[in-house]
Fold this protein.
Amino acid sequence: MTGIAQTTAFSLHNIIKDYTSREGTAVRALDSVSLDAEQGRITCLVGPTGSGKSTILRIISGIEEADSGSAQISGRKPHEFIGKLGYLTQHHTLLPWMRIRDNIGLPLDIVGQNRETQGEKVARICELLGLQGTESLYPYELSGGMQQRAAIGRLLAGGAPYWLMDEPFSALDEKTRQRLQRLLLQLVRENSISALFVTHSIDEAVFLADRVVILSAGPGRVIETFDIAVSHPRDRLSNEYGRNMERIRRKIESVLSE
C-alpha cells in the first residue's frame, strides 16, 4: 500500500449474526466481525464453507440485519444505497422472458430513461463487454460466461458505484473465468467501482484483490487482513507474480489449514 489515504467503501464493526436451527437452537454465523474495504478497489473475502462470507454481503446490502454491530457503505447505512448497489451471484439473475438488451437496460427503464438514450447506452455496454450480436437473444441462448457478462452489463447500466459479488465466476470454465476476471479489473479501474468479492479460490483472490480478508470456519471471524502490493494488471506468468503470489498463497493456506 502507498501512503495515500483511502476512503472506506464498505465497513463492518463488531458484527454478530445468529440463526435459528431446525431444532430451535441458536447457531452463530458471524462472531464480532470487523473489516474495511477501500473505495475504488477490490476486496476479497476468502474462507471455508460456513465462514459467513455470503452473510456478510447480505448484511452490507441491507437484505439482512445483524443482531449487533454496525454495517456501513461509505459511512452511511445500507438502506440509503437502494439503487446505488450492484449485487451479482453465481447465478446471473437475468429475467428469462426478456431479451439481453432489455435485461441490460432494465435499470434505465425503471428510472424512466427514454428509449433512444437507453438504446444508445445499452449498445455501448454491449460493445464494451463483447456482447454485440446478442442483443436480441434470450438468456438461455447464451453461454454461462456471456450470461454473466450481461448481468455485469446490467450493473453498469444502473451506474451503481458499489458492487457486491458472491462467487460470480465459480461455475465457469477456467478460461472464461480468467477472461471475466480481467474484465472486472478493467471495469473497476475505468468506472471507480468499489467491489467486495467473495471467493473460495485463492488464485482468484490473489489475482483480483487489493485487500484480502481471511475468515475462519463457522462461526465466521476475521483471522487476518492483508493488502497485496503487486500492481495491476497482474501477469500470472511473470516472475514477480510468481514470487509475490506464492508468498501470499502460502500465508492464506496456512491460516485456512489451522
